[in-house]
Structures are given as structure tokens and as C-alpha cells.
Amino acid sequence: MYRLTVKGSFSAAHRLPNHPSPCSRLHGHNWEVTVTVIGEELGPDGMLLDFTVLKQILQEVLAKLDHQYLNEIPPFGKELPPTAENLARYIYHEVATRLAPYPAVTLQEVKVGESPSAWVVYTP
């Protein structure tokens, strides 16, 4: 089994209105995101998936979030707060959709960090 991981980042603001802490106020993070795919068979080029392809997919997803107020980006809002957990699940599904043309790989996990010491990992 091969595991391939790429990393990206974006800057964005959010607030968690139902959280009884300073996080209920508007604040921002420099978010770090890693995406890991797995697969067993290498292609004729000796690769599971070109790093460039996976980086491009991740950047495409993160570009929608970069320098945004996440509470105003669908699907986030009152019913779905933009927590690190919900962001990880959202990014997972956005990346998985874009990986459909690459059946040799399976998206294993998405890791989202809002600081160097606070991360969440989403695996379905």
C-alpha cells in the first residue's frame, strides 16, 4: 500500500457563535491542510498519483476559502459552524469529488490545523 500526502494552507476568518469562549468573536487563522490518498497499484509512470495533480486539486479547493469569512461560505452558517472539524469534512468531500477521474487512489484522510498545536483529522 502506498500513501501520498500533500500540504496546503489558507488564511481565513470565522467565528463560532454558539461556543462559550473567545472563539465566539470574529478571529482568524492561518489554516494548514494535509490530504492523504492511498492505493496499491502504480501507474506505468511508476507513480500512484503525480504530486502536482494532488497539489492542484487541494489548491483549487482551498482557493474558495482563502481570505474569506468562512461563516458566509456555503455550506457554513448558523446551522453548520465553520469549526476545524466541519472544515475537514467539507475539504474531504470537495477533494474526493475532484479525485473521481483517478480510480487508482482512495482519499484516506484530511487533516486541518488552525494552529501549530491544534489539529483535527477527518476520515469517513
From TrEMBL:
The active site is at C23, H67, E114. One of its GO terms (molecular function) is 6-carboxytetrahydropterin synthase activity. One of its GO terms (biological process) is tRNA queuosine(34) biosynthetic process. Binds 1 zinc ion per subunit. Its cofactor is Zn(2+). It catalyses: 7,8-dihydroneopterin 3'-triphosphate + H2O = 6-carboxy-5,6,7,8-tetrahydropterin + triphosphate + acetaldehyde + 2 H(+). Transmembrane segments: none annotated. SUPFAM superfamilies: Tetrahydrobiopterin biosynthesis enzymes-like (SSF55620). Pathway: Purine metabolism; 7-cyano-7-deazaguanine biosynthesis. Zn(2+) binds at H14, H27, H29. It comes from the Bacteria. Keywords: Lyase, Metal-binding, Queuosine biosynthesis, Zinc. Pfam families: PTPS (PF01242). Its EC number is 4.-.-.-. PANTHER family: 6-PYRUVOYL TETRAHYDROBIOPTERIN SYNTHASE, PYRUVOYL TETRAHYDROBIOPTERIN SYNTHASE. Belongs to the PTPS family. QueD subfamily. This is 6-carboxy-5,6,7,8-tetrahydropterin synthase. It comes from Ammonifex degensii (strain DSM 10501 / KC4).
